[in-house]
Amino acid sequence: MLSLDIFGFKALWSPFFFLLLVAVLIGYFLLTVTYRNRFKHSEPLTRKEAIIFTITILLLYIVKGSPLDLMGHITFYAHMTQMAILYLVIPPLLIVGIPQWVWRTVLSKPVIKRVFNFLTMPLIALILFNGVFSIYHIPDVFDVIKVDMWLHAIYTSLIFILAICMWWPLVNTLEEYQTLSGLKKVGYIFADGILLTPACALIIFADTPMYATFSDPRAWMQALELCVSPSMLATLDLSGPEMFNSMSLLHDQQLGGVLMKIIQEIVYGYVLAQIFFSWYRKEQRDSEKVDKEALNQSNPQFVK
Fold first, then answer.
1. This prediction's pTM
2. Cα–Cα dist 67/3, whole Å
3. Which of 88-97, 212-221, 236-245 is modeled with the greatest confidence?
4. Region of residue 41 (phi > 0: left; psi between -120 and 50: alpha; otherwise: beta)
5. Where are the membrane-spanning stretches (predicted)?
6. Is the pLDDT assigned to residue 296 strictly greater than 80?
7. DSSP 3-state assignment of 244?
8. Cα–Cα–Cα angle for 13, 17, 18, nearest 5°?
9. Residue 302 above 60 pLDDT?
10. Beta carbons of 162 and 129 less than 8 angstroms apart
11. Which candidate in 184, 191, 246, 259 could, as Cys together with 180 as Cys, close a disulfide (CB 3.0–4.6 Å)?
């Protein structure tokens, strides 16, 4: 098998994307620390927020700037790993890593607030994210988007925005944006998992390779041009993804669907556990408060 090193440093490590993310990280700390006092109602940046946002940027680089991005254009399983991390792991971390006062400042703009409130309505968010994600993996749609740089950038950015909207009702901590109670969040997670299952099942149980951009050498080379310059590809004698992967095309495709589903179950399971225990602790606190108030009313002398 060939090594990815043949594509060169630029294709492997995306230095310009790395510099862009470094600029974003610097901007984040300038906004939330250095120039925070210029904003009304701003609050000090917490260590948790700083660590989570930094991890988010690191993950974003790993997914879209490291050799994993190049592998995502060569093998389907790497592509689905990218998708799982990009849409199921990074958005909730991004929401939590951005301070509340920054979210309030951005969402205070009337137009942004109206659009955002609509897109983050639980039912709308579920349908839009899972619908757009599933449409993307219809073979005819996928193969068209995968070979066009602008279509690919626009569509994947749209899915990312809708992923943020989908995660918002679950993980945002702004009191005025709490649209789901504890039990409703549990139902929301289960519904999300169910809606994502058909796309994964279609990929896992297909008996033939479905995507030309991972099976047809010509379409595969066109897709590869999204991260490798055509001039570089012209110097290489490549016949298809089998030169970099010992698995058959079908097994590569099936592994991609399985990895997507496994990562989804791990992430959703973790979030579900967090939601359940948070709801349980809240119920316990409320119960203790009610008991204490009842005791205070009936026997005030026993209450300190």
1. 0.91
2. 11
3. 88-97
4. left
5. 12-33, 45-63, 83-103, 115-138, 150-174, 186-206, 258-280
6. no
7. coil
8. 65
9. no
10. yes
11. 184
